[in-house]
Each structure stands twice: as C-alpha cells, then as structure tokens.
Design brief:
With 191 residues, this protein is mostly beta strands. The protein is built from one helix and 15 strands; from the N terminus they run E-E-H-E-E-E-E-E-E-E-E-E-E-E-E-E. The protein has a four-stranded antiparallel sheet, with no helix packed on it. The radius of gyration is 20 Å and the shape is globular.
Length: 191
Amino acid sequence: PEHGDGAGHLWCVDITGHGDVSLELDALQPAKGPQEDLLTVAVTRPSLSKGRPNPNSGVVWDVTRLDGKLRDPRSKTSEQVNRTLASAAIDPANGLLFLPDFSGYLHCFDARTGKHLWTHDLEAAVWWSAMVCGGKVFLMDEEGTAWIFESSSKEKLIAQHEMGDNAASFPVFSNGTLYLMTHDRLVAIQR
C-alpha cells in the first residue's frame, strides 16, 4: 500500500505439479540437459530475452486486465486487477472467486476459468480479504463500511452499513454470529 495504486496479477496455479511449474522457462536455458542456476543467469546476463513456454507449467489461468487484453500502463484502475493485501475468497457452492483490491474494487471471477464476471466500485480501499458464507460475500473497506453481496455471477449488492469507524479486520462468522471489528469496537450480529 505504501506504493499506492498499481496493477496487480491474479494467478490460478495447479499445485499438484512437480518441478518448475512456472508459465515460462528462461529462453537462454537449454531445452534439455542440465539447467543453469537462475540466479547465475540473472547476474551474468542481466538483459534476459523473453521466455519460452514451459510444457510443465502449472498455470491454469492468470488475469491482469479485466478485458483480457495485454496490460497497458495507461489502464484505469477499474479496468484491471489492482494491488491487494487480500486473499481470494472462493464460494465452493458455485465456483465463484471474489477478490477485493487496494484501489477499492471488488472483483468476481469464475474460479475454474478466470473469466471476469463483474466489478463493484467500493469507493474506498480494502486491506482485508472478503468472506464467503451462506451464499453471501461479506467485506469491510478501510473507511468502515460493511458490504454484503450475493454470491452470484451477476452483481447483486444486498446491503452496505456504515460502522461509524475505520475497519480493522475482515469479517468473521462463527457459531451463528457475524463479527465485524473496527478500530474502537467489536460488533457481533445475530438473528
């Protein structure tokens, strides 16, 4: 966050692979035979050429720009995945992935394909992860607004509540109670 807004990169990687599962291999390394140490390559040849596709890649999909085009440094923050401190939250019931970012956007993707489905402008930075529970997506922005969305491939805002203080954490649900923490208080919400 101290570097401000900027482009981010969301990756989906198959963790069952072995060895080097990166998207590309160093173009200067031989295709077969012993591999050079990458640190040595970087030091001895600092201007590396573009890599070559890795046949052993574990990358399932990756997203930088929401329209699927190549990254453009002039992109608006609303057109890209931005820097974030949050972890992605996935709803296993419908396969949707939710990612808030430091620029104040909540993004929804198909977790299987990486297809961008919708983005909501929260108008305030988000430092914490969203929580998916009971078919809903809960999150808090840094200005203390609690947001509740339907976990859906279509953008459906259910509610937003001003907590009256800056948020200090992500929402937590336990034993039928939703907990929201601000700088000055802990709020517990039950039916």
